[in-house]
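Pasting as-is:
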Amino acid sequence: MSNQFDFKQFSIRQDLCGMKVGTDGVLLGAWASGGQNILDIGTGTGLIALMMAQRYPTAYITALDIESKACLQAQINTDLSPFSSRIEVIQDSIQHFSAAHQGLKSYNCIVSNPPFFVNSLKSKGNERTLARHTDSLSYSELFRSVSLLLSKNGMFSTIIPAEYVEQFISEGYIFGLFLTRRCFIRTVEGKPFKRCLLAFEKQKPSQIETLEVCMQTSKGAKTQWYTTLTSDFYIK
């Protein structure tokens, strides 16, 4: 895998970070609703923070990660981007950060590509383990922290495996966060849903916007939905 991934307006170096550039991050960064003050939980390489900075030219982004090498990587990528003045990289756990900032600061947009492997085998690399497993950040802890930091009319957007959707939504309800948008994603036509993009708010919606999409046709071509969603980022 290459140590650098080039997008239209920025590049991601990924030699220091446990998690590399992946489709999940690109999907979330291109889909999530933004705001003036954005928090990216578990920023990793800084990919989603940079995508949100590109999409929302007046927004200020806090990019948070618990892992020191990820923060260094995100800082390098931010410094080399056109958006460096609007992104602050902070090393901290979201649990500690939310407790320290409760009542002092709120965000009208929170995004997170969270750890999602539950009760599964762990990889040998510690950084990758932290990034991929819920041991360091359970769904309950994530929603608790989001509920403390999300503004009254703000939106929390995330992406998780399709098989965890119901469990994840239920955790949100416990902390007063209601599903408002969901997008089920197949990687290839005819295959089961692989991922789901979800958006939550503190206000219960009158209806939930639901979409079912596919990234590739059975012949391997990108679908119109996927092409349109990512056209501002992918070079080809």
